[in-house]
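User: ok so my PI wants both of these folded by tonight, can you help

Assistant: No problem, let's get them done. Here's the first:
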Amino acid sequence: MVGLTYASGELVKIDPLTGLSGRAGVPFLTPDPGVPLRMATNAPKLTPEKAWKTQPSLRKVVGFIARNVASVPWKVYERLDDNDRARASGSLAERTLRQPQRFLSGFKLMERLTIDKCLYDRWAVLLTPDGVPHRIPPRALVIESNAMDEIQFVGVNVAGRTVDVTDLPLALGTGWDAWSGDGISPLTTLDAILREQANAVEWRAKLWDERPKFSGIVKRPLNAPKWSETQRTRWVQSFREFRAGQAGGAPIFEDGMEWEDWTSGYSPKDAMDIEGRRLTDAEVASAFYIPPELVGAREGTFSNISAFRQMLFGPALGPHFEEFEQAFNSELVPTLAGDQFYAEMDRQTAINGSLIEQSRVLSTAVGGPWMTRAEARAMQNLPKIDGSEELIVPLNVTEGGQASPQDGVTGAQTDERGIAADEEQQT
């Protein structure tokens, strides 16, 4: 149970399991708090909830961003001096960031915060007095700013009333707004494109349901014997079954009936279904600064996909990492561990590429082997062996003896694709 106060000064309690509890101590479930007035003025016509449910392109791109950001783990360090730091993997801060709550992992917390940022342009994490981080849903986040667009008040809309959390440790992020310190949802900008895609999908669905499944008409001679109502009903029913694909492989024509092709109207190719979806994917990906090749909106080759992957954790997702790191290190991490501690998202591991690429670059940079046997065994989750902590330097790789430690390596050198360099030169 966490004690907070309303903006009016009235004491309330928020139970993570039961919602809001009044002064009498009788818990009741919190209803939908609604949308704060300021946020309602900037709300797009296509709400984030509806867009997440009905827009495949948006969900694909935002989900791609959120999963990749969340897949980069937090690491906490203790700052010993300006040029020295120590990893604090067992600190309360890192343990809290990796497992914020019992049924909430660090991955899911960061995934939800990234989705909040992409869909609402605002996100917040509250550290309650018991040391537990709580994500504040954007729909319940109340932000007030002064004439300089500086945030002065942060609250949580609970059951239609505002709980003041300004004085509690907060990690907060908002986008740009012309008239406040709040943000404007990117869906406001993408609204026209997404509505166009929704209309196209609806039109194509009606086209497939209502148009004939084949292009042609059936002609019956004028001098053909007149059918009885039973005969006509039987033939029409059999043709409808054929049209629905429920019986037979071909219709049965009677009394000199003839088939005449009818090429007017739209075919599936004319509707350009796949092209339209790829165009929307590319537009949404570009709006979130993601290379369309990474979400399948445009075809790519092996070489440029590898380059785009390097860009993903650099200029594409780098601003997300930087914003989260600065916000968490401003209040949450110092509150959990102390002012000498700070947290980083280990994006360098994701950028570095494969172990083969890292080994080649690092061995050349340091002029010799750079990993001990103990470190290599730890990477493979193997037990430690006594005497494996020393760095082994081969006799043919001595200090100053060669321009590169790789000059003395015997055997074929392979690139990141596993292709021998000498074989590639021969081809």
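One down. Here's the second:
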Amino acid sequence: MVGTASSLVPAPRRPLDPDPAVPADRVRGWYENELGWATVPGEPVRLSVGLRFDVLDVPAVAGHAALRRLPSGAPVGVRGERMQFLVAAGSAEELPGVLRWLEWEPLHLDLRPIGPGGSVEAPRPTGPAERQAPEESVEAPSPSRRPKTASPAPGGRCPEAVQGAAVWLRPPVAGRGVEASLPTVSALGGGGGAPDLVRLVNTLATHCHRARLLRACAQPLAFS
């Protein structure tokens, strides 16, 4: 039996509760020291885009369909009704050419590239477990200290995400060579482990266009 979109998408990981034990500088330090990702001064913590990765920002409803194109190690975030795919640095610059080659260029697609000079809100790390490699043996935390996961709302959305908080749908894992798992144009026809950016963009464009048509059909007819 074919599952629904919501059953195919894991629940977004709920960020650590904002309390004095988890200050912004600890969040900033996790990204800068554990992942080597630059951040932007100020609060809330924001990640600098264009150095280690670029971002493709799409409606969440369109992003769900593209998740199956990615390996589990490729980070994906959710903020409000938007889904953010981390892709290889330079992909934002490549996007117009890819869309033109795929013959999507004449259409207005709600597919927003974020590249050098841009930034995105940094989801809070999902807890100490994210600092451990999956194979490592760690002592099970007490129930009061276990990272919480949010139950998805109807349609596979997370309550925190709907309220606008940035959360990880698929979080990055420190020490796992995150950049090697990011979609890239150079993966087209290659034998590497990185997914193909062209196929990802085509999937995103297809479902962005489909979502746009569905919105247009749902609008009531105007009579003069």
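Residues 5-134+149-218 form one domain. DSSP finds six helices and eight strands in the chain. Good luck tonight!
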